[in-house]
Amino acid sequence: MEKKPATTADLDALPETKVGEIINGELYVSPLLTPRDSFFAFYVLVELIQFFDKGMRGTGGWLIVRKGEVNIGGDILVPDLLGWRRERAPRLSEPDPFIPTPDWVGEVLTPETEGLDRELKMPLYARAGIPHVWFLKRKSRMLELFQLDAGRYVQRAIPLDSEPVRVEPFEALALDCSYLWTRVG
């Protein structure tokens, strides 16, 4: 018997303790981030929002959210972090806003999600033309930056240790994770 493609009803049926995504018609279910990884993602989110989303000090605005849905063809992905340049951002005040493909996504890599993020989601992000992808690795204190160039991602590894770093597309901000490591190690 042929397996039926996964639907949004399958996603809706999942408990709140799981994250569901549909890729190539198949349902992929992942656990929520651990408290440490969740704090890590939240810290990065807050740093970016303070600088870019509220327009406090940054040059150029962004709308940045956590756990948003990205539709690429028939695939439904849920990156840990995602953002749109202000001029392309969805108008969330509208009753049913059009949600364009983001300009940046960030994934917190965990043992449970790393294969899914690298092997299945990355090619979809490239196909959708998402210019910047970050893989954040709390345990190794690394950020892997992927920049889209002629349909393929060029990768660069950046340590997130004790020195502030400037990373595309948010290079106006010196991202300082030193405080973070005193909290989550």
UniProtKB/TrEMBL annotation:
Sequence intervals crossing the membrane: none
Q: Which UniProt keywords apply?
A: Endonuclease, Hydrolase, Nuclease
The reply to whether Nuclease figures as a keyword in the UniProt entry is yes
Tell me the first and last residues of the signal peptide.
Answer: none
Q: Name one Pfam family in it.
A: Uma2
Q: Name one GO molecular function term.
A: endonuclease activity
Q: Does the keyword Hydrolase apply?
A: yes
Chain ranges of the Putative restriction endonuclease domain:
20-174
The protein here is known as: Uma2 family endonuclease
Species of origin: Corallococcus macrosporus
